[in-house]
Amino acid sequence: MKYILALLFSLTSLSGVPTMAADIRMAPHQKALDVSKTLVITGNFEKGDTQALIDLMLNLPEDRLPISTLLLGPSNGGNLEEAMSIGVLVRILKWKVVVIDDCYSACSMLALSSVYRVFAGEMGLHRPYYDPKFYGETDSYYVEQWHRRMNSDVQEFLEDAYISGSIIEKMMSVSSREMWTIPAKDAGRVLSNFPPYFEELIFARCAGKPVTIPEFGMNADCLHRELGQMQRQSLINFSKAVSQGKF
C-alpha cells in the first residue's frame, strides 16, 4: 500500500485550517449498555492523533480489549494525514464504526475505512486541499504536482477500502468551498455498510441462520460473533507488529 508510506511524509489537510486535536477516549460506563470496548472520537484531527490513539490502546486493561466499536463525530475534518492513518488502524483491527453525528471532510475518510459502518449522522465529502497560504506562496507547477500526488493517494486509500469509483469521482469533483452531504438515512445505501468481501464472507459463514437484520440480510448474533473473532486475531497480529517495530 504505497499511500501508507506517503502518509508518513505528507503534511496534507482536507480543511487547511488549524484545529485542536481530536478528543480520543474510551466510552464512559453505562448501566444499561456494555460499552467497555467502545472508543469515542470527536472533534477535528491534528498531527499526533494516531500516536495518541496507539498509546491509549497499549495502556488499556485486558478486559477492555479488543476494541470493538468506534463512535465517531461530530467532526468537521482536520488533518487528512492523521484521519487516514487512524483509518488504516480501523481497517487493520476490523472495528465497527458508528457515525453518530456530522462527519465531514477528513472524518469521512476514517469512517469509510471500516469493514462495518453504521450511519446515524450526516456524512460530508469533498476533494483534498491545503492551507490557502500554500496556493498563494507556491509556484503553480508545484501546486499542480501536489494535487496530482494527493489525489492519487486519496484515490488509492479509498479503493483499498472498496469505495466505488463513482463515489470517488463525485467526491473529487466537489471543490473545497462546497460539501457533498449525505444524510444518515441515505448513507448506507449510497456508501454501503460493508465492503463486498466482508459482506460475502458473512453471508457464507452465517448461511442458514435466520435473518434478524433485514436491511443487511444477516443474522445479528452470527455477524457480531464473526466480527469479534476477527477483531481478536487482528489485535494479536497488530500487537506482534508493534512489539517488533513493524508499525
What do you see in this structure?
The protein has one domain: 2-enoyl-CoA Hydratase, Chain A, domain 1, CATH 3.90.226. 36% of the residues are buried. The strands form 2 sheets. Strands 1-2-3-4-6 form a 5-stranded mixed beta sheet. The protein has 247 residues and is an alpha/beta fold. It is built from 10 helices and 8 strands. The N terminus is likely disordered.
Query: How are the strands ordered across the major sheet?
Result: 1-2-3-4-6
CATH fold-level name: 2-enoyl-CoA Hydratase, Chain A, domain 1
Distance between the termini: 13 Å
Low-confidence stretches: 1-19
Write down the overall mean pLDDT.
89
Structural class: alpha/beta
List keywords for this structure.
disordered N terminus, 2-enoyl-CoA Hydratase, Chain A, domain 1, alpha/beta, 8 strands, 5-stranded mixed β-sheet, 3-stranded mixed β-sheet, single chain
Question: What order do the helices and strands come in, and which of them pair?
Answer:
Blueprint: H1 2-9, E1 23-26, E2 38-42, H2 49-58, E3 69-72, H3 80-93, E4 96-99, E5 103-104, H4 106-111, E6 116-119, E7 123-125, H5 132-137, H6 140-160, H7 165-172, E8 180-182, H8 184-191, H9 196-205, H10 220-243
Parallel strand pairs: 2-3, 3-4, 4-6, 5-7
Antiparallel strand pairs: 1-2, 7-8
Helix pairs in contact: 1-6
